[in-house]
Amino acid sequence: MVKMQPETKKRLAVVWKATRTVFVWGYVPFILYLGFKKGADPGMPEPTLLSLLWA
Length: 55
Known about the structure:
Blueprint lengths: L5 H33 L10 H6 L1
């Protein structure tokens, strides 16, 4: 295994924590964005933010 200096380990830990936070808080909004961007299937009503809240 590669030996790293303590400063490098700290920086990697900060980057990992930031990446994890972005993923955890951004996953669901990104999936919702993709769903709204694609639109509804033929014959279905268009999705709205209000319909999302009542589902």
